[in-house]
Amino acid sequence: MTKTGKIAFQGELGAYSHQACHDALPEMDPLPCRTFEDAIEAVRSGAADLGMLPVENSTYGRVADIHQLLPSSGLKIIGEAFVRVHINLLTVPGTKLEEVTSAMSHTVLLGQVRNFLTTHNLHRIVGADTAGSAKIVAEKGDPSIAALASELAGEIYGLDVLARHIEDASNNTTRFLVMSRMPDFERRAEKMMTSFIFRVRNIPAALYKALGGFATNGVNMTKLESYMVRGQFTATQFYADIEGHPEDPNVKLALEELSYFTDMLEILGVYPADPIRQEIG
Predict the structure, then answer these.
(1) pLDDT tens readout for residues 153-193
(2) Which GO molecular function, any one, fits this protein according to its record (predicted)?
(3) Annotated catalytic, 176?
(4) What is the radius of gyration, based on Cα positions, of the chain?
(5) Which candidate in 91, 95, 130, 174 is catalytic?
(6) Catalytic hit among 9, 36, 82, 176
């Protein structure tokens, strides 16, 4: 996937979402946004050509806000990107480890480096986000305060990497979706992914029957998430990822069978699988 223009993401420059943009689409100019809603609106309004949104993390599960925002966003998925969450201790240049007494980062990231913080007796400071913490550390210029963030954040804010890849879980990975105003069903790759949302009809065993077509047609479903719609317990919506393209005969049959047991079915995107998917599978 080769694109030019701007790509929107939530967070400061140097955030892990920015890392995803940098790794997957380095030729695009990053556009930091305050919230997920702002990033979506940037794409929808044309201020950005694409958006990079996190949907799930191997340690902490799904990003709930995104699953609620995607159906009403009006945007389509045209790609995916997996980013290994490498956490680094960033300090003002020339700082020695024994000078550092505290570390600042997002509360989730602080929980992922407990072993390192305990070993070095570092006080935890909760910051608004990872890259924002790096920015604050750079502005303060205090060698006793370090940031926990990406190496990219260190490069952007002029900080040294005092300790590299200090996360407790060596396989911590976040999956991102590349969003666009228009779908792209024309691309073909050895392995394609299709993402969609659906709502089952209010009949006995509706979900069981709806999913049966994927099993009988040999379609691999890699993700199935449920969430309530507008706070109603009786209106459960599902988000699903499957391997294949809607024009593949077996996928086409499975989606047709699904439609018999749903009162809403919407394809959110068709896109090539990130090669990293195989490595982390």
Answers:
(1) 999 999 999 999 999 988 889 999 999 999 988 888 999 99
(2) prephenate dehydratase activity
(3) yes
(4) 21
(5) 174
(6) 176
Q: In this structure, how many other beta carbons lie within 10 angstroms of the beta carbon of residue 211?
A: 20
123-126 and 160-163 as β-strands: parallel, antiparallel, unpaired? unpaired
Bridge partners, 227 (sequence order): 237
Q: Which two tokens stand for residue 158?
A: 């002029």
pLDDT grade, residue 204 (50/70/90)? confident
Q: Which two tokens stand for residue 25?
A: 């689409």
| 83-136 confidence digits (pLDDT tens) | 999 999 999 999 999 999 999 999 889 989 999 999 999 999 999 889 999 999
Cα–Cα distance between 198 and 184 in angstroms, integer?
A: 20
Side-chain half-sphere of 178: how many Cα atoms within 13 Å?
A: 29
How is residue 190 written in tokens? 């050895």
Quick check: is 95 catalytic?
Answer: no
Which structure tokens are listed for 142? 């205090």
Residue 141's CB is within 10 A of a number of other CB atoms, namely: 9
d(CA 209, CA 26): 43
Phi first, then psi: give them for residue 30, nearest 5 degrees: -75, 140
Q: 224: closest CA among 206, 208, 241?
A: 241
The rounded distance, in Å, linking the Cα atoms of 29 and 3 is 10
Among 191, 92, 203, smallest CA distance to 139 is for 92
Q: What is the pLDDT of residue 232?
A: 63
Q: Look at the block and give the residue holding tokens 């210029």.
A: 141
Residue type (1 letter), 208: Y
From CA 93, how far away is CA 156, in angstroms rounded? 13
CB 221 within 8 A of CB 211: yes
